[in-house]
Amino acid sequence: MVQEKERERLIEEMMPLVAKVAMRIKQRLPASVELEDLMGYGYLGLVDAVNKYDPAKKESFSKFAEIKIRGAILDYLRSLDLLPRNKRKKVKELESAWNELALELGREPSLEELMEKMDVKDESEIMDVMMHSINSTVKSLSDPVIEGVDEYTLLSVLEDDRDPPYFLEQNEFFQELVRAIEMLPEREKLVLSLYYTEGFTFKEIGSILNISEARVCQIHWRAIRRIRKILRERGYEVGQN
After folding, report:
1. Among 10, 26, 214, 220, which one has the highest count of C-beta atoms within 10 angstroms of its own C-beta?
2. Domain termination site, one of 36, 62, 78
3. What is the distance between the alpha carbons of residues 76 and 81, in angstroms, rounded to a whole number?
4. How far apart are CA 182 and CA 160, in angstroms?
């Protein structure tokens, strides 16, 4: 049990971590989700971490706290319906348009071809649909693969800077997940790394790669879609079709 003075010190010291975790998660969510709400639930996770931390186990408190902060925020997100009915319809249209064009063209469609197929005139509109498609999987991407162990999720692999072998020891799912990520084209892996690991926005990634923000969004959406497909083929239900 952490002593009271140490408890107060840890809470104060780790508050920037609450903001960091909340902001990183917020980047993947619709504008309707308030950062302040995420930080509020993150703070509850921090308090829970302080109350449950056992120094005798010699576990890094910052890592333990990050797990609890993230878990509290994701628990909150699981209680929300992040995808309104009209957006859910658009997401299905996007998936349908992609599949039809891929079959017709014999290759993956371009952003422009998708926009024409869906009769979308503005890049921001199709970016919004793609982001809602990704956000619609926030539950499955953030649900623990090992029941009761919050840190073992698809997002944690994308965000973690440790070597893959760490995860290979934990669960068969991660073995398949790492393989799925390794199967991605280099540009898709780069975008995922810049977005999840480095925390860059689509606009910033676009500047780095000298492509449009909409193009970055498409690459990101396509990578997550590809990962879901690979995992689904291996018997793991991750996200929607």
Report:
1. 220
2. 78
3. 11
4. 15
pTM of the complete model: 0.58
**Length in residues, the chain:** 241
Helix residue ranges, H only, the chain: 4-26, 35-52, 61-78, 85-105, 111-117, 123-135, 138-142, 154-159, 165-168, 172-182, 186-192, 202-209, 213-233
Whether pLDDT at 191 is above 50: yes
Whether the predicted pLDDT of 194 surpasses 60: yes
Say how far residue 48 (Cα) sits from the centre of its chain. Answer: 23
Taking 80 as the threshold, does the pLDDT of residue 20 lie above it? yes
Whether 73 contacts 25, CB under 8 Å: yes
Provide the residue range defining the domain that includes 207.
Answer: 85-233
* Extended strands (E) in 59-204: none
Tokens 């890049």 sit at which residue? 123
User: Half-sphere exposure of residue 85, counting CA atoms within 13 Å on the CB side?
Assistant: 0
Integer angstrom CA distances of residue 36 from 33, 84, 182: 9, 22, 35
Beta-carbon contacts of 209 under 8 Å, excluding residues fewer than 6 positions away, are 187, 190, 191, 216
Rounded to 5 degrees, φ, ψ at 209 are -90, -5
Is residue 141 within 8 Å of 152, Cβ to Cβ? no
If asked whether residues 64 and 140 sit together in one domain, one would say no
